[in-house]
Each structure stands twice: as C-alpha cells, then as structure tokens.
Amino acid sequence: MSALTGFLAAAGLAAASLLPTATPAAADECTTAPSWRAGTNYVPGNIVRFTDGNFYIAEHANPGYDPTISTWFWNPHTCSGGNPGGPGTPDPSGFVVTQAQFNQMFPGRSSFYTYQGLTTALSSFPAFAKTGSDTVRKQEAAAFLANVGHETGGLYHVVEQNTANYPHYCDRTQPYGCPAGQAAYYGRGPIQLSWNFNYKAAGDHLGIDLLRNPSRVQNEPAVAWQTGLWYWNTQSGPGTMTGHSAMVNGGGFGQSIRSINGSLECNGGNPAQVQSRVNNYTRFAQILGVPTGANLYC
C-alpha cells in the first residue's frame, strides 16, 4: 500500500463515525444505484452513479472520495445487460428510452441497429428528445422511432431492397456530381437516406464526407443513426415543419409523417401506410407510458 493510499484509508476510518453511512447494494443493483455524494460514508459493495455518467463499486470503506481518484476505494462497475446501467435503466446520455424499452419496440431488428449506436448519435442533436416536458420528450422519441421503424420494417432493413432503384438516386445536375458512382446513393439507414444531395447535406451537417463515402451509413451504426436524426431534426421534406418541430411545437404525429412522405401518404395518398405509422407510434407511446397527443393523422 502506498503512503497516499495508507493516509486515505486512515482518514476514511477516522471519519467513519462522523458521516452518514450508505446502505450496501447488491453487485448488479444499478437500477436503484444513487448518485455519488461527497461526504457520504460508503462501505464495500456500494454502487453509485458518478457525475461522469458511469457506475462505480466501492472496494473499501471511504467517506465519499471521488471514484476516479483511486482504485483502492472504487472500481468502475459494468452492470448486467451490457450498458453501464443495465438494459432497464436510462442511458447515461439521458435518452428517455431505455435499452429494455428499445428491445421491446424492435424485437426482430437487425443487429446493425444498436442501442449504443443510437445513444452515441444523440450528442449530434442535443435538442432531440430533450425539449419540453418529460411527456413531450418521450412523445418525440416514440414518434421518431415509429417512423424509422416503419421505413425499415422494424429496423430490419439496413439498405433499400429494390436494387433496380439504385442508379436513379444520382442527380448529375448538382455541381459536385456523384463522385462515389452512379448507383452509390441508394437508401440506407433508419431513415433510408437516398440521393447524392441528401448524402452531401447530411455529411456537411455532421462533418463527415458522405458524398464520397456513402457506405459509412450502412457500415457504422452511429453514422446511420446520425443521418436519421439529421433528417428528423433539420429537414421538413415535403411538409411544412421538421419532425422535431411537429412533436415539440404541437403539430402532432401526423405532421411528422407529412415531413417524410408528404402527399404520397397524406391526404388520402396511402391511408394504409399512414395507419401503419400511427400503429407504431401508439404502441411505442404506450411502452413509454405517455399519451399520443392530438393530430395523429395527416
């Protein structure tokens, strides 16, 4: 034991009788793990969520030492299920959908569409599912996931299935052309991003050269999710508002459908497709425990 460690251990013992004591926790009890607090007396087995969003387990008694300072007192703790907080707890990113809820929404999804990829992508769009009340935040998350679920057959398809369409998505009137090839800009990812101009716009926004490297959208889960969130948060498409604006400003789920497919589905264009999206949204809102709100249809 180093001199510093010995000093801290002695200090912890000396302070033990003067500070409140935390209740020991079971090894994987992250679902109820409290936030770390300086000045709380911890005993071996206590699990806390630190300010960095990660979990730590006490190895030796201490009076609330910073968990990142010494592995003598604390060790990083990974809970069951793979996520820092386990599949039933909110992700440290603050996303309102837990991994367990995500799994419930998409039981047959492709392994490509990972929860971790989604939560990693959230940092590029800090307003998404973090605007308004807790109900509004969950409604927006449910709406986005309902629409991308519809677009991909329940997050099953990573790329567009009709290969005959692939050469059609190159608009050579654009000054930058199609440097990745005539048939390189087919639908990919949760929103099925297509056309060379959309790959360029999304890439410019994200700081990624997707015009020359469109395959990143089908090879990197976080990039795929970023493109879906890019469209949702920045593009109104054939509608009058973005999906994000529709859900946080009272437009309703129906307006998010319009921003994706406009009259192809709305105003009687394809009622069955609209109903499929509404069914997804209704189910996901129930999973998250919130009402759907008004204006479900377009």
From TrEMBL:
Alphabetized UniProt keyword annotations: Disulfide bond, Plant defense, Signal
SUPFAM superfamilies assigned? Lysozyme-like (SSF53955)
Gene3D superfamilies membership: 1.10.530.10, Carbohydrate-binding module superfamily 5/12, Endochitinase, domain 2
Q: Which residues form the signal peptide?
A: 1-27
Note the InterPro entries from the entry. Answer: Glyco_hydro_19_cat, Lysozyme-like_dom_sf
| Record domain Glycoside hydrolase family 19 catalytic: where | 108-298
Q: What is this protein called?
A: Chitinase
Q: What is the species listed in this Swiss-Prot or TrEMBL entry?
A: Streptomyces yaizuensis
